[in-house]
Amino acid sequence: MKYSNREQAILLLADGTIFYGKSIGIEGTVFGEVCYNTGMTGYQEIFTDPSYYGQIMVASNAHIGNYGTNAEEIEADTIMISGLVCKNFSFNHSRVNSDENLKSYFEKQHLVAISDVDTRALVSYIRDNGAMNAAISTDGTSIEELAKRLAAVPDMKGLELSSKVSTKEPYYIGQPEAKYKIAALDLGIKKNILRNLAKRDCYIKVFPYDASYEDMKSFNPDGYFLSNGPGDPDPLIVAQETARNILEKNEPVFGICLGHQVIALANGISTYKM
Q1: Which of 93, 107, 193, 236 is surrounded by the most beta carbons within 10 Å?
Q2: Is the dihedral of CA 202, 207, 209, 213 positive or negative?
Q3: Which domains does the chain possess?
Q4: pLDDT per residue over 172-182, tens digit each?
C-alpha cells in the first residue's frame, strides 16, 4: 500500500515524555500547548475551532478520518490547531456529502499530524499531570533540538490570542428585518454560533475583539454576545471594559467560553486555568 512507508513522527512533551507514531500530515515541526477532546464525531469542527488556536490537539476517539470533510462543517476558514495527535487514521472515507479525504485536507491546510499513538494513555497522562507545552516533529529533528526549542515556547498563561483570530472589520450575519439585533464581540467566534443565532430570528453585527462599548452600542442592539476564543482572558483589557459598561448599563449580555470569563473579570471575579 502506498501509505505503508509513512515517516516516523514524534510527540515530545515539555516534561520529557515521548510518544512515537507515524506522520499523516505535512513534513515539519510544530509547537503548542497539548490539549485533548473526547468527542466521538465532529473532528473537522474541532480542528477549525478558534478556541484551539495554536494548540496541539489529541483526539481520544480511536478513529479519525472515516467520514472525510465537508466545507459546510467548518467553524473558521482555516485549521486553527497547530498540530494533531490521533490513534487510527483512515485514509479512506465514506459519506455521500464529503468533499475530500482528511489526508488531502491536512495537506492543503499545511497541518503537521501524527497517528498510531495510544491517545487514551496520552489523555490520561495529561489529565494526571496537567496541561503542558509539546512538540510534534515529522521531519527528523533530533530530540535534543526539539527539547531546546520547546523550552522557549511561552506558556498559555498571559497570552492574548484573540487578536490572532478575530475579524479585522465588522460584518453582518442574518436578515436586517429579523426580530432581534445582536452585537457580537468576536474573541474567536465559531461560524456555527452565528448560524444558530441567525436561525433564531437574529440580525448580528460582529465586531473585532477590541471594539469599545460605544462601537457596539451604535448598532442599537437588543442584546450583546461575547464569544468563545483562545488564550488567557486577563490581557483582554478592552473587552473587559466593554463588558463592564454593558453590565453597568444593565443591558442584556451573554457570554460563552472566553467571553464568559471576560464577563466574570468585568464583575471583579477572578478566573484560573483548569
Answers
A1: 236
A2: negative
A3: 8-150 (3.50.30.20), 162-266 (3.40.50.880)
A4: 999 999 999 99
